[in-house]
Structures are given as structure tokens and as C-alpha cells.
């Protein structure tokens, strides 16, 4: 049981570090005016890029990806 708790704690720590890293990248990112979606090739709207500067998917493709992973 202790090993399981250690593993869960390590996973949680890793996720926290990844979130902090992404937050720092987003805070310092140069926000482009537009970017193409990696999935469908459509333009990602500027409003989405201002909210999520590291976004690589348009809203529709992101929602599809989230549905498939949940």
C-alpha cells in the first residue's frame, strides 16, 4: 500500500510540475495572431490563442480529442 501511495504522490507531483511549466510557458509566450490546427488545418481563432497561447488544436478538434480521452 505504501508503494501505491508513493506512486500516486509521484504522479501528482509530476502533474503539478507539468502544469506549472505550461503556465510559465503560456505567461511568457508570444501570442500569434493565428495558427493552423494540427488536426484539421483550419485557422485557430485569435481569441483562443490569447486564452491558450500554446493551443495546437481548434476548439472543435480539442473537444473531439477530449471526448475520445474521457
How would you summarize this macromolecular structure in one to three sentences?
Helices cover 63% and strands 6% of the residues. By secondary structure, it is mainly alpha-helical. GO terms for molecular function: zinc ion binding.
Main beta-sheet annotation:
2 strands, antiparallel
Indicate the proportion of strand residues. Answer: 5-15%
Category from helices, strands and their pairing: mainly alpha
Distance between the termini: 27 Å
Oligomeric organization of the protein chains: single chain
Percent in helix: 55-70%
Structure, described:
It is a single chain. The protein has 70 residues and is mainly α. It has one domain (2-69). Helices cover 63% and strands 6% of the residues. The chain has a two-stranded antiparallel ribbon. A hairpin with a 6-residue loop joins strand 1 and strand 2 (43-44). The longest helix has 27 residues, at 2-28. The protein is elongated. 4% of the residues are buried.
Amino acid at each position: 500500500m505504501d508503494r501505491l501511495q508513493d506512486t500516486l504522490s509521484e504522479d501528482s507531483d509530476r502533474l503539478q510540475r507539468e502544469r506549472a511549466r505550461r503556465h510559465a510557458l503560456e505567461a511568457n509566450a508570444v501570442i500569434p495572431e493565428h495558427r493552423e490546427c494540427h488536426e484539421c488545418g483550419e485557422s485557430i481563432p485569435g481569441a483562443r490563442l490569447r486564452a491558450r497561447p500554446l493551443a495546437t488544436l481548434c476548439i472543435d478538434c480539442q473537444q473531439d480529442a477530449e471526448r475520445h480521452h474521457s
